[in-house]
Amino acid sequence: MKFLAKIVLIFFLITSKIYASDVTSWLKFEIDQILNAYKNDNISNVEKFQYIENTINNNFAGAGIAKFVAGKAWSSADKETKKNYIKLFKHHLALNIASLLKGYSNQSYTMIDSKHDEKNGVFLIDMEIQDKTNKFLITWRVKESKNRFYVIDFLAADISLVITKRSEFNSLLKKVDYDLKAFNQTLSNQNELSYNKLIQ
Q1: Domain count of the fold of the chain
Q2: Beta carbons of 157 and 165 less than 8 angstroms apart
Q3: Whole domain around residue 66: which residue ranges?
């Protein structure tokens, strides 16, 4: 019986490593695609952002993240307001990540570790970014759904993007008494400013 238990444990460990390897390869491919587009001097800043936004929308669990970030404002909003908010949030997320890429210059990255958190059903992938003098770590949190992977969060220096956004949005929502419809206008204006700055 103990021997059988060991065999089962080894099987699950091997399977977990195979899955972790698969998701790491997927993530690396998607990151490389974005970086290659961003470093392509033959396309305009508008085209670069469009490519980045499409890739992020396709690979991030945008709707789920948006709902979590909205907090208590979500439950009291109507269907159309929620729909508009998700669209605005996805655009906001893409703008944030595109802005981060503006600081990417001749840096290199390495996928250094990956593991499967079976309890929470999440893959944790550690990526080390290095320039001439410094190194810093990003941990990607990825889930599998409907036979494909989605990024649900990433942590830089142990700081969660999703938790940071929830705190940031909560402060802004508080100013409009957690009225998501009113907040949508604030977010739309913020997105427009960020976009104009990004494509210059």
Answers
A1: 1
A2: no
A3: 2-198
